[in-house]
Design brief:
This protein is mainly β. The chain contains one helix and two strands, in the order ββα. The chain has a two-stranded antiparallel ribbon with strand order 1-2. A hairpin with a 2-residue loop joins strand 1 and strand 2. It is globular.
Length: 70
């Protein structure tokens, strides 16, 4: 509908969760719109730490947040 805005889930990008041998390991956290406690889902890409990227979850992360997960 016109004039209606859809609030997107809040995203915190590139949070450092660990540093290994000088390399900062980063994660993105997708938060739902409603405050409060909620279950969390951890998405880990494949690739044996040699390939892959967290960018592959930029569609599913907001969807999960919209469903009530962090």
């Amino acid at each position: 509908a016109q004039g209606t805005t859809v609030e997107e889930p809040r995203v915190e990008r590139d949070l450092v969760y660990r540093e290994v041998e000088g390399v900062r390991l980063l994660m993105d956290v997708y938060h739902g719109r409603k405050p409060g406690r909620r279950p969390a889902v951890l998405l880990v890409h494949g690739g044996g730490w040699l390939g892959g990227s967290k960018q592959g979850y930029r569609e599913i992360g907001p969807w999960l947040a919209d469903q009530g997960y962090t």
